[in-house]
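README: folding subset

This subset contains proteins for which both the sequence and a predicted structure token string are available. Records are stored as plain text. Below is the entry for F-box/LRR-repeat protein 14 (480 residues), shown exactly as it appears on disk.
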Amino acid sequence: MEESQLLMTELPALPSTRGTTLIHRPGHYYHLHQPHLAISTPHSQTVAHVPASAPHYSTGATTNLSSYIQGISRHLPPLPRGGTSPASTHISSLYPEILALIFSYLDVRDKGRAAQVCAAWRDAAYHRSVWRGVEARLHLRKQAPALFASLVRRGVKRVQVLSLRRGLGDVIKGVPNLEALNLSGCYNITDSGLTNALYQEFPSLTELNLSLCKQVTDASLGRIAQYLKNLEVLELGGCCNITNTGLLLIAWGLQKLKKLDLRSCWHISDQGIAHLAGLNRETADGNLALEHLGLQDCQRLSDEALRHVSAGLSTLKSINLSFCVSITDSGLKHLAKMPSLRELNLRSCDNISDIGMAYLAEGGSRIASLDVSFCDKIGDQALVHVSQGLFNLKSLSLSACQVSDEGICKIAKTLHDLETLNIGQCSRLTDKGLHTIAESMKHLKCIDLYGCTRITTSGLERIMKLPQLSILNLGLWHVR
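--- output ---
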């Protein structure tokens, strides 16, 4: 295409046709006026198929569809008693509603290919149910009104812009009911571009990703807070020009925000987190509906920020503090008091030690996922504390920590519901620890043993007998 390159295959223009409604009534029969679809019965397993010599159908589109038709037919309700099933039926005889149901199972590229087979398939492929949840991935280089009209016609409401040479306003104007806009990595997005694009309220837009848009500053956040009041997801990872003022604007305007990613926003400090937590009510109410907060690599944050989080963000479910080197054990006292917190990432937090694990366990934390990988002050005593208080853990990551068989045996005997255990590069671990894991952690589904050079085939054989184990990472393991 000359005007724009669309990774989601562009379909030909659709003439005006009668509307169609997808038939899907669980518990009811498909009453067809003619025997268009062969349905499996106890007496016949024949399903619709495509003859190899069927005319007017491109081989690439029809080859995979036969299997989809078989899969769909298996899930259709059986015919009423006494019903008959023909020996076979040509695909061209299927109702548009059935074709649309089949096309909905294809990947994005094959949806487009199917639409180019014939007019009947094109009409069925344009049904909005076929494109539900699909994200269009676009290279926008010139004006493309036909492209946007095509997206609207198919009901596409999620767009990722891979490269952008024109104004961002063209996208927002062209797809007025846009729900999700991903601009991650578009380095030429500027405050001026966002200001021109956001000229009125856009109530349908609930997700915005500006990750690595490094020219974006607090000025853009002011515009977003003013016109995108219904945002629930805002990703600003790598937007290194964002400051505490930007967080104040977010706290003022985005009351429905549930997920906020501030990874590597190096100017963010404790005061900015206080704005999010609504602790300065005279200026902003805060984002009290937040459930997921990403603060990875925000190195100016201290334990005071965690105190603010605990005081104001009571609905928070997950927080990522990895590489926040100023966070200490004392900050975990505040997080331990949060009843809704389920995921805690402390990866490479150098000042977290066994004492911090004691604070979490004794404070009644109900976290289900804990990552303290590369915290070299975490040792066997930390696992003693974990085994005595963090009984809800389903995932535990201890990669490169100073733990041994002794600590592993402690958690193996109490964390019976653990499903994921990452202990890669724990060089003190031997077969003894693996034997204990194999005996006690029967629900384990994933284990990472990358770089555990002291284990042997004896330990591995025991681990591989775990009934639910599906992922085993050995990496640099050396057979002895």
